[in-house]
Design brief:
Layout: H1 2-30, H2 36-40, E1 54-62, H3 66-74, H4 87-92, E2 115-118, E3 121-129, E4 133-138, E5 143-152, E6 155-164, H5 171-205
Antiparallel strand pairs: 1-6, 2-3, 3-4, 4-5, 5-6
Helix pairs in contact: 3-5
Length: 212
């Protein structure tokens, strides 16, 4: 009887945790930093995957003009400027990545059609609107990642949207997804905060500091 009671308690706790995650935590981290309008409205690259299984829209406000944000975006990637996240975690996952804290001139000439290699696939640049939007898509077409810069008064809103076609995910990815989803929020939050910090420092160094 005691074993049954323990099992019943554990099952009830698991159900409760699932409900809390599904109704509160998941919507929060999928839309971290984004306004309701940003989370539900269109973002560059949506047309590349009109019927995604999962959409995550995250955003951050940066006290700098788009010109101070853009260079950090176009140099992202393994073997390039990094991802501005926890690079030690990336390396544990098999991604040889090093985050830079400077603008690398030779990496600023990104263009549509270029491919950024990743372990097992590549991210192809599908759209590049300098100072406004960058969109990349995985070579297996399961993932579209969009970055859009929007003026917000004296600041810039950096919006990051991930669209996933869950039907194209491998069985391994599907089994790992409950961990991948909150993990991606943790890494992307770090990325957005780092870009914010470095863009604001760059703007200050260039005499482009904007008032709150």
């Amino acid at each position: 009887m005691r074993v049954r009671a323990c099992l019943a308690t554990a099952a009830a706790a698991a159900v409760a945790a699932g409900l809390v995650y599904g109704r509160i935590l998941r919507p929060w981290h999928l839309h971290w930093g984004a306004t309701p309008g940003e989370a539900s409205g269109p973002v560059a690259g949506d047309e590349l995957m009109p019927d995604p299984g999962v959409v995550a829209t995250r955003a951050i406000e940066i006290a700098a003009p788009p010109s101070a944000v853009w260079p950090w975006l176009v140099q992202m990637g393994p073997g390039r400027g990094g991802a501005y996240t926890y690079d030690w975690i990336e390396r544990r996952l098999g991604i040889d990545i090093r985050n830079t804290d400077r603008i690398i001139p030779e990496l600023q000439s990104l263009k549509v059609g270029d491919e950024i290699p990743m372990p097992g696939y590549a991210m192809r640049v599908e759209r590049l609107d300098p100072g406004r939007a960058m969109v990349v898509r995985s070579s297996n077409h399961a993932w579209v990642w969009s970055f859009e810069l929007r003026s917000a008064g004296a600041h810039t809103r950096l919006i990051s949207r991930n669209r996933f076609d869950t039907a194209l995910l491998t069985l391994r990815d599907k089994l790992a997804y409950p961990v991948i989803e909150p993990g991606s929020w943790l890494m992307e939050r770090k990325m957005l905060r780092t870009i914010k910090q470095r863009a604001e420092q760059l703007a200050q160094a260039q005499g482009q500091t904007l008032s709150p």
